[in-house]
Design a protein that fits this description.
By secondary structure, the chain is α/β, with parallel strands linked by helices. The strands form two sheets. The chain has an eight-stranded mixed sheet with strand order 7-8-9-10-6-2-1-11, with helices on both faces. The protein has a three-stranded mixed sheet with strand order 4-3-5. Helix 4 packs across helix 6. The chain starts with 19 loop residues before the first strand and ends with a helix.
Amino acid sequence: MNHTRGAEMMARVDYKEIREIIDTSSNLLTGEALFPFAFDETICREVGSGRFAPAIHIWRHQHAMILGLRDRKLPHAPEAIRWLESNGFRVGVRNSGGAVVPLDPGVVNLSLILPSDRGKMEINRDFEIMYELMQSCLKPIFPGIGKGEIIGSYCPGNFDLSIQGKKFCGIAQRRQTKAFVIQAFVLVEGSGEARGEQVKQFYDMASGGDTRLKFPIVKPSQMAALAEWEESVTAEWFVSRVKEVIKGFWPAREINIYDPVYNESVEKTVTELKNRYLEEKSENK
């Protein structure tokens, strides 16, 4: 397959530049929690080199808990991770920003993988790209999407997206020299509060109850899924809407499987991420 970017990209890239849609959301991931993050890292390198066009990666996982680097450093994190694993969670520590995020079939994950503007680094502007995409996707049903940190939410940040003061989406970013990834988790179905309870349990255990430590103080009621406002909303509808918006600007090619040509690179990246996690684990003992 030829994924050459072709013509020079516009001075300021955004989601309208997407030419490839990698949508595996209909086949839930059940294995390695870090696989989709390693895949993003691999495709980001390809986009940066010009061998792959700007892309969006859409995926879901059956049952996982993704930690941030700070979460891993909490004093009782090893015990908390073992507790998660004993309850069937696949656990991973990602290399992008953010904190603990639970994943299940009701959570749709989006990664915008775009080339960097030469000589520019506009981190806030890059977050805005995902915000603008979410606005376009949800406008028919949710015209008023808030942007700004929701106190008490999990994985809090300046680009929390919310409706009526409750968070449904968090955004993180991972940068390479020539390209970057903007990642979002979107609570579409299920209970936001129940997911918040899962995260709170992790922090209660990982911190040993020591509130002097630096970690998010989660109030589960601050989280909600889109379907809790509008029952007709499903994960399938949301994914379809994302693709509709992307294809409204360009007839992007759609891929529904992970191309095996990248397997070796993805597996290598998974190993690298795990090694980093294990090194931190041993340092904190």
